[in-house]
Specification:
This protein is an alpha+beta fold. Helix content is 26%, strand content 40%. The protein contains three helices and five strands.
Amino acid sequence: MTHTFPVHVYYEDTDLAGIVYYANYLKFIERARTEWIREMGVDQTQVKAETGIVFAVRHIEADYLAPAKFDDDLTVQTSLEAMTGVRIVLRQDVMRGVDLLFQSTVTIVALTETGAPARLPANIRQNLH
């Protein structure tokens, strides 16, 4: 299943040339991941309160293929690539229509509140499949 998340490019997202500043793609995909996991039935605040587990980006590979510009309407597409007991690997692409502008592979890990690795709760693994 691919989750889609709309993003409109505002002036504040761009640099002097009117092109989306590279770090803002990371913000776009972060927002999309939050909505993806919410749609999968996972309430991150509740997970933290009940288990002490939080999620963090462990690794990201990103390719900037073409620029997005001021006033563009974009879509972030998020799909599950792999999952183990402690990590989730996602593919996240930023599209403008049919044009692929940015592609990434993001590895998310589960951590305790002290930063130690933790196993993903079974109900979360089940929800994400």
